[in-house]
Give the backbone structure.
Amino acid sequence: MKNPLAPFIIVSVCALALGPLCADFFGPEWRARWILALAANQFQNEQLDEAEKTLQSAAQLSADLTADPEFWILKLEIDLN
């Protein structure tokens, strides 16, 4: 006889195991990377003021982003223009 709770138990166990991994993967560092990419696109489109604001919001979202060379390259390019 098949247990009607088996699918619920399987989904619950998978969610408990994979939930924290997915939350860490799609956490603030992930969003900060995408915001950094947005700032780079704004810089290429010559929207310097918006690129600077976007870059600051990415830095506030993740402190680890400020250790990335891509962040500093973009920051220097924005500051020099």
